[in-house]
Amino acid sequence: MARIPDEEVERLKHEADLAGLVRASGVELRPHGTGGDLIGLCPFHDDHEPSLVVTPAKGLWHCLGACQVGGSAIDWIMRSRKVGFRHAIEVLRESVGAAGGTAPALPKRLASPVSFEAQDWELMAQVIDYYHRRLKESPEALAYLQKRGIGGNDAIDHFKLGYADRTLGLRLPDKQHKAGAAVRQRLEKLGLYRDTGREHFNGCVVFPVIDPATGHVTEV
Known about the structure:
Layout: H1 6-15, H2 18-24, E1 30-32, E2 37-40, E3 52-55, E4 60-63, E5 70-71, H3 73-81, H4 85-96, H5 120-136, H6 139-147, H7 153-158, E6 162-163, H8 178-189, E7 205-206, E8 209-210, E9 217-219
Antiparallel strand pairs: 1-2, 2-3, 3-4, 4-5, 6-7, 8-9
Helix pairs in contact: 3-4
């Protein structure tokens, strides 16, 4: 169920400030022709004659030089940051905003939803809070619950239901780094990560069990 809806992908492509993304990568753009296109040096090859054409009206870019590549704002982030599709979507979501409206600056890295100094029960709570927010931002997951008779924010909030949409790992430090490896080991001990390095509940709606005496999540 963690597939990103086509409507969300198209919304991000449409609302993203493509020229702003390109300029944020260090490319100087200038007007090209009379149709509103912009042109600059392509950062993906040793470009001496401007060959990168950006068409803001269509949300598209294309290198007419050695690269011969192009695409949308999503493709630009994937290529310029060397990240995958889902990671690029998350970067754009923070830039454009969940409800639309371009943010003033592209985040250098995705914000982590957890504190690496937190105690185990706090770490568990922070992940559950993150899954809870992701559920409330996912029309697909909310529709899934509605079909099964679990509807309305009151029930979702009361039971702290969540959605593991495969984005938690994108917001943690790289697993090759000390901090990234350490937090993943702790999440594995808490039952939230597998020994393969993937989230245990990938693509699932999450139902936490909360101790009424302490308010702590005891299991998921």
